[in-house]
Design a protein that fits this description.
This protein is an alpha/beta fold. The chain contains 7 helices and 9 strands. The protein has one domain: Nucleoside phosphorylase domain (Rossmann fold), CATH 3.40.50.1580. A hairpin with a 2-residue loop joins strand 3 and strand 4. The model has no long low-confidence stretch (mean pLDDT about 95). The structure holds hypoxanthine (HPA). The site of hypoxanthine has 11 residues, from strand 5, strand 8 and strand 9.
Length: about 270
């Protein structure tokens, strides 16, 4: 495994003329537009990268964008690998391993999720303060001791300093933020009403199908993480959302997320 990760990282270094990103970004569902905000120097389709998982979904596009945001070098994943697509957890998290070898020192993640906290509204941005993992743990198997410990600590999983910075930026930019615990399930089904109630009872604020494996692997390697979730539906509400309104809210939220990510990268 480690050899494959090293080989892929070496190939990318050659392909990008030794571009050394400081920040890794994972763009979630509906948030890929942030890719356009990157002053790109190089983009690589996942399909062209040796060792990268091969997409099983027809028409599923994904690429790595190398470039700068606010003058800082970043690498962004436009599209991620989900467990529900049939990938192994080692494949879902492979890009994070590679980004670490390329030199990233921070990981920013984003996703879409269903709100369970009843004070959340569609279109809200939730800063992820912690998570509950209901998927298979991506670290099951032989430990890659060169990259991290057998029993990684999961305190401060989402970096408190980065959360504080996000709060200060949001106040300044008049962006409304929610804060909460992200519950990561396998999907692909959305939750039943009973499951949303269960997620709430165990301390969750939002439900999703990604992010947790990537953050676990990043924390295994000691990378500070910052995560934001766009609330696209409210799991415990009986209301059927107006689709156009949901889309409008989603766009607004994506704009706020872009502002937040840009300012945070500038101020790192
Ligand atoms: N549950 C799980 N994943 C999701 C949801 C949800 O309600 N909304 C968006 N992604």
């Amino acid at each position: 495994m480690l050899e494959e990760i090293k080989k892929t990282a070496a190939w990318i270094r050659t392909a990008t003329n030794d571009f050394a990103p400081e920040v890794g970004i994972i763009l979630g569902t509906g948030l890929g537009d942030f890719g356009e905000k990157i002053e790109a120097v190089c983009t690589l389709d996942y399909a062209s990268i040796p060792g990268f998982p091969v997409s099983t979904v027809e028409g599923h596009k994904g690429r790595l964008i190398f470039g700068t945001v606010e003058g800082r070098k970043v690498v962004a994943m436009q599209g991620r690998f989900h467990y529900y697509e049939g990938y192994k957890m080692t494949q879902v998290t492979f890009p994070v391993r590679v980004m670490k070898l390329l030199g990233i020192r921070r990981l920013f993640v984003s996703n879409a999720s269903g709100g369970i906290n009843t004070s959340f509204r569609v279109g809200d941005l939730m800063v992820i303060t912690d998570h509950i993992n209901l998927m298979p743990n991506p670290l099951i198997g032989p430990n890659l001791a060169e990259l991290g410990p057998r029993f990684p600590d999961m305190h401060n999983c989402y970096d408190k300093g980065l959360i504080e910075r996000a709060t200060a930026i949001a106040e300044r930019e008049h962006i409304k933020l929610q804060y909460g615990v992200y519950v990561g399930g396998t999907g692909p089904t959305f939750e039943t009403q009973a499951e949303y109630r269960y997620f709430k009872a165990i301390g969750g604020d939002a439900a999703g199908m990604s992010t947790v494996p990537e953050v676990i692997v990043a924390r295994h390697m000691g990378i500070p993480c910052f995560g934001v979730s766009v609330i696209t539906n409210c799991g415990l509400s009986d209301e059927v959302g107006d689709h156009e309104d949901v889309q409008r809210q989603g766009r607004k939220a994506a704009g706020n997320m872009e502002t937040l990510f840009k300012a945070m990268i500038r101020e790192l």
